[in-house]
Amino acid sequence: MEQWSRRRRLVSVTLWLALISVVVTVALTLTMLSAGARTSARLSAADSSAAGSGAPPRSFWGNTSRIPAARNVLEVKVINRTNGHFANDQVYWSFDGTERSIARQQFIDMPANSAGRMYFYLGSRTSKYYDFIEFTVGSDFINVDTTRVDRFGLKLALLVHSHDGSTQEAGDNYATFRETRTATFRRFQAFVPRPFKQLATVSAPYGIPSPGNDPAFQPGGRNASYFTRYAAAHGAGGDTTAQVFGCGGTLSGNPPLCAALNRHVAQLPVSEQSDPKNFYRAGPANYYAAFWHRNAINGKQYGFPYDDDAGQSSDISVSHPRYMIVAVGW
């Protein structure tokens, strides 16, 4: 009996140890799952935030720790984001009479200047694949933007970093950079209504002109009357369709009306004309501009000259800038 009792106690102890092991394993597993869920939630939230703004991940901008300190106002770095289509010795920048490939010179020590432009070329310095950014640089600030006012030529994005550690971004969104050039052209053509579709082919493959620069929307063109009736009904009776797109004629001195006509909100109360939820919901409208807004970081882009009305342009202003990165895409 005593021997049987010892065996029973031994079995009981073994079972208890096994049970404790199972409990500990389950507890550890639940803890790990909980931690993983919290990490996944944080990552999902971060990804959702990035997707919502269209901004690229930090890795897109490269190693910022190696950007040298500027002797002038700020340092500019040009990076190749053509998805392997062009090598660094085929990506060129041009500013103030100097032209270089980024293989030869990737950094520009930017001095103060007024109303400057920096051009970018792919393939060669005389390539028809080109685009530009616009900026004004003061002794302790920069105002800069990407622009689609004249045309789309290359995918461009900007990051400006201040000495206080803050950053601002503008330009084409990450999804647009990741897709092929052919896909961008096709999406544009699928997005816009029939009068705008030829914009994707008239200058292809080098670019997409703004409608005001397309002969079809100019006097004598087949779409010359596109905006005239709507413009006349809302105070711009003497202006052509091309002048509405380009904010010319009487609209050159009336930014709010030009913006309202392009966005098709001129018929709304003034208090509702600055709400982006109302923009481009019906025609006639500048659907060329609408496409580039939809595919821009934070939805901000210069799609026509007065697109800064209601704060919708890609212009960013940074005090005490430390550096600017310009991403050039295909």
Description:
This protein has nine helices and 13 strands. With 330 residues, the protein is an alpha+beta fold. The protein folds into two domains: 68-177 and 316-329, Thaumatin; 180-300, no CATH class. A six-stranded antiparallel beta sheet has the order 3-2-5-6-7-12, with no helix packed on it. It has a five-stranded mixed beta sheet with strand order 4-1-13-9-10, with no helix packed on it. Strands 8-11 form a two-stranded antiparallel sheet. Strand 9 (155-162) and strand 10 form a beta hairpin. It is globular and about 55 Å long. The termini are far apart. Mean pLDDT is 89; it is low at 1-51.
Strand-helix topology:
Layout lengths: L1 H52 L20 E8 L9 E5 L2 E4 L5 E4 L2 E10 L7 E8 L3 E6 L4 E2 L2 E8 L4 E5 L2 H5 L2 H11 L2 H4 L1 H4 L5 E2 L18 H6 L7 H6 L8 H9 L23 H8 L21 E4 L1 E9 L1
Number of helices: 9
CATH topology title of the largest domain: Thaumatin
Report the β-strand fraction as a percent range: 15-25%
How far is the N terminus from the C terminus? 88 Å
Helix percent band: 25-40%
**Biggest sheet: strands side by side, in what order?**
3-2-5-6-7-12
The count of DSSP E runs of length 2 or more, i.e. the number of strands, is: 13
Key descriptive features of the protein:
330 residues, alpha+beta, Thaumatin, 2 domains, six-stranded antiparallel sheet, five-stranded mixed sheet, 9 helices, 13 strands, globular
In a few lines, what is going on in this structure?
The protein is α+β, with helices and mostly antiparallel strands and 330 residues long. It has two domains: 68-177 and 316-329, Thaumatin (Sandwich), CATH 2.60.110; 180-300, no CATH class.
